[in-house]
Design a protein that fits this description.
Radius of gyration: 24 Å
Helix content: 25-40%
Oligomer: single chain
Largest sheet: 7 strands, mixed
Strand order of the largest sheet: 1-12-13-15-16-18-17
Structural class: alpha/beta
Distance between the termini: 56 Å
Strand content: 25-35%
Shape: globular
Number of strands: 32
Length: 529
């Protein structure tokens, strides 16, 4: 269970490159210099004897500090899984087995429960960071959702924890935004270099107003320079990435010298490690459902053997450390007091989906249409973050389902522009297999045929869209003002921000509608040949 941090880290030291370097003429020079102002290293001796290490890893915790129902488990009674108490207990079990152990996180600690918005020591989500510190994390990287409360809040993370937070491809005013672009951990005589990286889609997944002035360097370019620098100093090199498995595979192919990639961002649950170009790639899913476990043997500057998998964090077989249990209980009581009121009753489960129309997606889009008095409404599938089981629907459910501070906005489009928007999304669906939009008032039918998509019909409230007519649309600020090119393929005219939060509009709607029976409306009909 939770013990003194010094005890958990007694056999390792930290060596870090320092941020705050001035950009010179070439990006490569940034990384060539990235370790020069920190500790000066000497060439490491070649390590000959095999050493077995255990790497425990997490990603996309999303502030899930309490257990949740494992809806995906078959059976009438669904078990509880996850939470920081279970996470700590399983980490402690693994450490007690006696192997030299490192614990790492690949980002997106924030956004998912209101605990990421509560201020602790001047930091929103500070309690989450402090609990990670108590669990003895050795290193983490930033995820895109760390920026949901703004850059200034992120800048306060580094003084709150005793472990390094590393990133090598985000800069502001020519300086790394984290104090360290990488760290070198010394454990059981093995020097482990850890480099942090952010997804190349960073600008597309964060509200632009939250990340103004940040510069993103390409992942392969950033990684190559640092890996080249630290390779002579290390026995093992790990990329700690918040990028997704596809980007991780690309890095494995393009960057020589990597041994392991511990990833996050796409919530991919890799039951077993994936090997790409000889590089071990792992990822655990999300929301404390699993603890990643990778056991390796290091010999001669390489991984000579490995075995990896996931440990599901079911709570029925664990005892939570008393001090941590008290903290979690205090947080839960406070949040329940703030957000525990029942607003309505769900007759059917709210089930989210990023691949197809969902009943909760259609329902949220309807609320946007109603609140903005628009002809149609569009909600991005990724903005709805939680499924909710039938029964009481609480304010906390709404906060966790719609955790972002997104506001309702309106815009105008011609019928022709709207048809182009639809065609743009049929092509997105053809290429990715996903329906990115949830709709109300707007519907369409299309066919996928080989390497093209064909629009078969499109309607507003059942009436065919007129190309030269003007229509009023409703959506959220993230979609319209930050990512219109991503979701629409263009930027509509006459965008107006109501400054009304989507979550507030939803709660207002529920004050008048106490029974909710959300259905999939069939707004998008996809045919395939």
């Amino acid at each position: 269970m939770i013990s003194a941090i010094l005890t958990k880290r007694q056999n390792r030291t930290y060596e870090m490159s320092k941020g705050g370097f001035i950009l010179t003429a070439l990006i490569a020079l940034i990384f060539a210099l990235s370790g020069c102002s920190g500790k000066q290293y000497t060439q490491k001796p070649t390590q000959q004897e095999p050493v077995k290490l255990l790497i425990l890893h997490t990603n996309d915790l999303h502030a899930q500090y309490v257990p949740r129902t494992a809806f995906w488990v078959e059976g009438e009674v669904k078990p509880l899984i996850g939470g920081f108490g279970a996470l700590d207990a399983y980490i402690s079990r693994e450490r007690e087995k006696g192997l030299p152990t490192l614990l790492m996180d690949a980002g997106d600690l924030m956004t998912g429960t209101p605990l990421s918005d509560l201020i602790d020591e001047g930091v929103k989500g500070g309690a989450l960071l402090k609990m990670m510190d108590d669990m003895g994390y050795d290193v983490m990287t930033l995820g895109n959702h760390e920026f949901d409360n703004g850059q200034e809040n992120v800048s306060k993370f580094y003084e709150l924890v005793s472990f390094p937070i590393v990133n090598a491809n985000l800069l502001k005013n020519g300086e790394f935004i984290t104090p360290s672009s990488y760290t070198i951990l010394d454990i059981a005589g093995i020097k482990v270099g850890v480099v942090g990286l952010m997804t190349k889609y960073f600008y597309e997944v964060v509200l632009k107003s939250r990340i103004e002035g940040l510069e993103l360097i390409g992942l392969p370019e950033a990684a190559k320079n640092i890996v080249q620098e630290i390779d002579p100093l290390t026995d093992l090199i790990i990329l700690l990435t918040h990028a997704g498995v596809d980007e991780d595979k690309e890095l494995a192919r393009e960057v020589p010298g990597i041994d392991i990639i511990i990833g996050g961002h796409r919530h991919t649950q890799l039951e077993q490690p994936v090997i790409e170009n000889g590089v071990i790639i792992v990822q655990t899913g999300s929301r404390t459902s699993n603890l990643g476990r990778l056991e390796i043997v290091v010999q001669g500057d390489t991984v000579s053997w490995y075995e990896g998998g996931l440990i599901p964090l079911f709570v029925d077989s664990i005892t939570i450390a008393p001090n941590l249990a008290i903290k979690i209980n205090d947080f839960e009581n406070y949040i329940q007091k703030m957000y525990g009121d029942t607003l309505a009753t769900l007759l059917t489960d709210f089930e989210t989906s990023s691949r197809r129309e969902s009943n909760v997606g259609s329902w949220v889009a309807f609320i946007i249409k109603n609140a903005t008095n628009s002809d149609f409404a569009i909600m991005n599938s990724g903005g709805i973050r939680k499924s909710v089981g039938a029964g009481p629907l609480t304010e906390l459910d709404i906060k966790e389902m719609l955790p972002f501070d997104n506001t309702l906005v309106t815009f105008e489009v011609t019928g022709e522009e709207l048809l182009n928007l639809i065609k743009f999304n049929t092509e997105v669906s053809r290429k990715t297999g996903n329906e990115e939009l949830q709709l109300s008032g707007l519907s369409y039918k299309y066919r996928i045929s080989g390497d093209k998509s064909e629009l078969l019909g499109a309607w507003i409230d059942g009436k065919e869209i007129v190309p030269d007519a003007t229509y009023k649309g409703g959506t959220i600020d993230f979609v319209l003002f930050s990512q219109s090119e991503t979701y629409f393929g263009f930027t509509p005219k006459n965008g107006v921000d109501s400054n009304i939060l989507l979550s507030a509009a939803t709660i207002e709607f529920l004050s008048e509608h106490k029974i909710i029976d959300a259905k999939i409306t069939g707004a998008i009909i996809r045919l395939e040949e």
